[in-house]
Design a protein that fits this description.
heterodimer, A: alpha+beta, Ubiquitin Conjugating Enzyme, 4-stranded antiparallel beta sheet, globular, B: mainly alpha, Herpes Virus-1, Four Helix Bundle (Hemerythrin (Met), subunit A), 3-stranded antiparallel beta sheet, 7% strand, elongated, binds zinc ion, ubiquitin protein ligase activity (chain B), transferase (chain B), metal-binding (chain B)
Chain lengths: 151, 514
């Protein structure tokens, strides 16, 4: 029964993805691993960058939330600056994920996170501190890193 | 409900904490026992006479059925007073952490808001039931075949029965959630009620759900705590609050016989208050290397240096080789321990001149710590050894019955002695942590005198207790053991009452950063 739901969501995301997002399968034979390309939002220091993410749907999907990680390095308080690119966002926590929640909602939540970091819930303390104390320096660092990794 | 029977104290504890042994014949008839007393030794008579000590904490033991009944009673009350469905009353009570008064008050004021906040928003459908609806497609699995069974709670968000089941299974079994399971709809805060659950899942899952609910019930109530003994399903109710813990040591006894502190959940640590216990345990863990040598089970005879192994709780050691008698704790002459100048328990502070420089001071402070740690650890270890002996006690008692012709009831005095030894050693152990943090004032000396009296009595009893069975069969020794047992229990009560009174009055003065 999971297959039908995933196929339907995939179809929607392929034909009418949220603005600034492109979706395709990592491997055509496996509908559980999605490749996401997200444009840096216009009003953010990430603008101009193309960020690659990997979305993995567990076998229990949609009863368990999907896992999603940045494959492209990104300088952001809520994303680890390493090869994992892990993040912690509300909608993916098991107490707020509902089986009727949809992948486009997850993707737009991430876009929103790029526009508005949540430094109090940070996984990168250095970036969070800079964001709070010297917004200009933070923006510059984020732009530089975007240039370096996401072009 | 303040009769002692209601506190669920086990009979052993009653015997242990009884201080009234001496007046037995004087007032034994004043308790209104009409029927002839069964010949059960002195155990039952004393239980009747149990008085509440100043250091006793009022508590109640609840078994799983009682806990369920309590919840059911509250649900019934709210169901009647507010005229709402029982399953909704349960959700409201859980939302208000079982504070019935506040729930009723708030509900009277703003019923809509209360229902909304608790996840019981406005109903859009009739009573929930499984239904087949034409043209229905499930938003979770995207199935739309005709005849598909579907379900919706009162919020009207409808999903196929299979998806609903799998969702509940995931929440209850995998995530251990029960009280806060919401409707599967993204953003809907409607809380799952027990009736809807019953319509959907197996009885196994229903049981698990109710188990989890009971757990939250106990955890939500400040005056309820689970008994920490493994496999015990009882809960204890006690009115002691967190802020009281520097004035009382709330020791409770579960029906499973486990004695523990209601404040921190650790095993009985009277007379030491929770905070001190925490500090002491941390210090012991931090300094474990320095103190490790102490827990060794062997030492050398101070006279001939031959190795001596300790295999019972008794601290009176006799070297097998040279017959030298000494105290295991302080390694001093045993002959001095029976007299009035016994001071094995007291740490002699070095005079100021000897500890002038920092190095000497830190040596003194280490010595001081080791003095107390040594005795603390020793009683802990001795209690374990006494317990080993206790397991052999029953065998002893059986062979004693054969050797002496005494009945099973008549040899229960060994059981009482063994219990007294363990309880008293547990108390003694904590008196040393307590003493470590005490400032040296007049009160301290009285405390040390009480400690000394209890310790001497315990060591004497421990020694008798380890005698071979043929000696135990001697009626004279039996009387001595019984006397010493009741004396030990009495000394323990005196010590605990004294420390508890001073704690309640804030009379103790602390040092060493406490
Ligand atoms: Zn479904
Ligand atoms: Zn709903
Ligand atoms: Zn218990
Ligand atoms: Zn405690
Ligand atoms: Zn010797």
């Amino acid at each position: 029964m999971t297959q039908k739901r995933i196929s339907k969501e995939l179809q929607e995301c392929l034909t009418t993805p949220p603005a600034g997002i492109k979706v395709n399968l990592v491997d055509e034979g496996n509908i559980h691993n999605w490749n996401i390309v997200m444009d840096g939002p216009a009003d953010s220091p990430y603008v101009g960058g193309k960020f690659q993410l990997l979305l993995v749907l567990p076998t229990e999907y949609p009863f368990k939330p999907p896992k999603i990680n940045f494959k492209t390095r990104i300088y952001h308080p809520n994303v680890t600056f390493d090869e994992h690119g892990s993040m912690c966002i509300g909608i993916l926590k098991s107490d707020s994920w509902k089986p009727s929640s949809r992948i486009p909602n997850v993707l737009t939540a991430i876009q929103q996170l790029l526009l508005e970091p949540v430094p109090d819930d940070a996984v990168e303390q250095g970036a969070a501190q800079k964001f709070k104390e010297d917004r200009k320096a933070f923006d510059k660092e984020a732009r530089d890193m975007t240039k370096k990794y996401a072009k | 409900m303040d009769s002692d029977e209601d506190f669920g104290m086990s009979s052993e504890e009653d015997v242990l904490e009884d201080s009234e042994n001496d007046n037995e014949s004087a007032d034994g008839t004043d308790f209104g026992i009409d029927e002839p007393e069964p010949d059960l030794g002195y155990t039952q008579k004393e239980q009747v006479k149990k008085e509440k000590k100043t250091f006793d904490t009022t508590f109640k033991v609840y078994h799983p059925d009682d806990i369920q009944a309590q919840q059911d009673d509250l649900i019934d009350e709210v169901n009647m007073i507010l005229d709402i469905r029982k399953e909704d009353a349960a959700i409201l009570l859980r939302h208000f952490r079982w504070n019935k008064e506040r729930l009723i008050e708030d509900y009277m004021d703003r019923p809509r808001k209360v229902l909304e906040d608790a996840g019981l928003g406005p109903s859009t459908t009739g009573p929930p039931k499984l239904e087949v609806i034409r043209g229905f497609m499930c938003d979770i699995c995207c199935e739309d075949e005709p005849g598909l069974q579907s379900f919706a709670m009162k919020c009207g968000h409808r999903y196929c029965a299979d998806c609903y089941r799998q969702y509940l299974n995931q929440k209850i079994k995998e995530e251990g959630e029960a009280a806060r399971i919401q409707c599967p709809q993204d953003g809907c805060k409607r809380i799952l009620d027990a009736k809807s659950l019953d319509l959907l899942v197996t009885s196994e899952l229903q049981n698990r759900y109710h188990e989890l609910l009971t757990r939250t019930y106990v955890e939500d109530k400040e005056q309820l705590k689970w008994c920490p003994a493994p496999d015990c399903q009882n809960a204890i109710e006690c009115g002691i609050k967190k802020k009281d813990l520097d004035r009382v040591v709330p020791t409770v006894a579960c029906d499973c016989k486990h004695r523990f502190c209601f404040g921190c959940g650790l095993a009985d640590h009277q007379p030491a208050p929770c905070d001190l216990v925490k500090k002491w345990l941390k210090k012991c863990a931090d300094d474990s290397e320095t103190a490790n040598w102490i827990s060794a089970n062997t030492k050398e005879c101070p006279k001939c240096n031959s190795t001596i192994e300790k295999n019972g709780g008794c601290n009176h050691m006799t070297c097998r080789k040279c017959k030298h008698e000494f105290c295991w704790m302080c390694m001093g002459l045993w002959s001095e321990h029976g007299t009035s100048w016994y001071n094995c328990n007291r740490f002699e502070e070095k005079s100021g001149s000897e500890a002038r420089d920092a190095q000497a001071k830190s040596r003194v402070s280490l010595e001081r710590y080791l003095h107390y740690y040594n005795r603390y650890a020793n009683h802990e270890q001795s209690a374990k050894l006494d317990k080993d002996i206790f397991t052999k006690t029953e065998k002893k008692m059986i062979s004693l019955q054969t050797a002496s012709g005494m009945s099973w009831i008549e040899v229960q005095y060994l059981n009482s002695a063994s219990h007294a030894l363990q309880t008293c050693r547990q108390t003694l152990k904590w008196t040393y942590a307590f003493a470590f943090y005490l400032k040296r004032v007049n009160l301290t000396e009285m405390f040390e005198d009480n400690q000394k009296d209890l310790e001497m009595a315990v060591e004497a009893l421990s020694e008798m207790f380890e005698k071979p069975v043929d000696e135990l069969a001697n009626p004279k020794l039996k009387v001595e053991i019984m006397d010493k047992t009741s004396y030990c229990n009495k000394r323990r009560v005196i010590l605990l009452a004294d420390t508890a009174d001073n704690l309640a009055n804030g009379a103790w003065e602390w040092s060493n950063g406490h």
